[in-house]
Amino acid sequence: MKLFTALILLFSCSVGASGSDASTHLDLTSSAVGYIALFIFVLAYTLVMLEEQLHLRKSKPVLLAAGLIWLLLGFAYSGAGQIDVAKSAIEHNLLEYAELMLFLLVAMTYIAAMEERRLFDALKAWIVSKGYDLRQLFWITGILSFFISPVADNLTTALLMCTVVMKIGGDNARFINIACVNIVVAANAGGAFSPFGDITTLMVWQAGIVEFGQFGALFIPSVVNYVIPAFIMSLFIPKEQPNVVQEFVEMKRGARRIVVLFLLTILTAVGFHGLVHFPPVIGMMMGLAYLQFFGFFLRKTLPNSLARKRAIAMAEKDEAALKRLGSVVPFDVFRRVSHAEWDTLLFFYGVVMCVGGLSLIGYLSMISNVMYLEWNPIWANVIVGLLSAVVDNIPVMFAVLTMSPDMSLGNWLLVTLTAGVGGSLLSLGSAAGVALMGQARGMYTFFGHLKWAPVILLGYAASILCHLWLNGGAF
């Protein structure tokens, strides 16, 4: 313990020498504190990238790293007599996280509620029952991924469509691999033109940099990003019928009304942001009340609903219906909240706090000066997209927002597009790809995705050129 205290005092001394003035942030980029903080972050993120191999949840290393980085900063700023500066910075980052976390929590709760009401199971059964061949199913799952992800987020959409593909493909590993690649590309592209489609687009919208309606300018570039690789990949899929067993899925009571409430919640969030200029999260939390009141209504009316259905089933002598009624449980909103992706939410906290700490040290200013002052911003934003294929797009986009470079609307839309779709280049580059490697283990693999990377890169380049051409006036 004495050794630790001595080291901290040593770091604080080196910090004091590097600070220019008591009213500004300290420049810690060349200090021991800065180097150790950078090492901690790199080590934590290496463990995140090895999540599948280590079976270590990605939230754990970044939570620890965030605490250690801010502990170092606390000692450093205390030693320099500027603890109020560090306190103000940590409170700012906590506020940023709280807004995004609550927003995501409501969205995840609605998705979990839809899943519990068997809405997605019914959609899956409907697709399987239509008797499409493999190539048609390739296009259907891809197009549905593209159009569902703007509302249901790319991770949930990818998992849903992968379930369909696994059910249809059976032991056809070649079809499952290429169909999963297609789903990842489609889900990421679909999420790029909607504030609800990906955490990166949500961050840009929450920051007030791009208005809700302005994301629509990315729709055609996103279509181009998906269609080009999808068309080339579809040529390698035979037109043969899959061997599948059809099943009937009955949605639970209230499933369709929950979809309507979710859309109303989105409109409420947009209204709060557009009409009174409050953070959209206030509207989302109000939307959670819609679901809570509807859950109350479902619980109160459940006995009468069961009695009516039981009478009909007995009159029709439908044993299957009677059995299903026996397994009905009341709808509970807080149980749906517990099913949210807490690992993702905690990972997001760790990333926000780590990047915020590195920003206070001064590293993001250094990077920003190189990328956005010495380079052309267009090339810088293209590189951001390529980086998001290796490093998760959440810390990459949060770093860009923290740098806050002076860019035109066109360039902000460009970095939103590239950070959103760049992760499709590798299976590890997006949450959708990582999740599908776990769900379709052994059939959808890193190298199975990698062999299609040149085709995906073609779509990536074409989408950027399309954006520069269509939205050139915004630059």
Automatic annotation (TrEMBL):
- Metal-binding recorded as keyword: no
**Its membrane topology:** Multi-pass membrane protein
Annotated GO biological processes are: sodium ion transport
Compartment(s) where it occurs, according to its Swiss-Prot or TrEMBL record: Membrane
> Which residues, if any, are the signal sequence?
1-17
Q: Which residues cross the membrane?
A: 32-50, 62-83, 134-152, 212-237, 258-275, 281-298, 345-366, 378-400, 412-432, 452-470
Check the record and name the InterPro entries matching this protein. Cit_transptr-like_dom, NhaD-like
Q: Where is the Citrate transporter-like domain?
A: 45-420
Origin, by domain of life? Answer: Bacteria
Principal place of residence: membrane
Q: Which UniProt keywords apply?
A: Antiport, Ion transport, Membrane, Signal, Sodium, Sodium transport, Transmembrane, Transmembrane helix, Transport
Q: Which family does it belong to?
A: Belongs to the NhaD Na(+)/H(+) (TC 2.A.62) antiporter family.
- What name does this protein carry? Na+/H+ antiporter, NhaD family
* Biological source species: Enterovibrio norvegicus DSM 15893
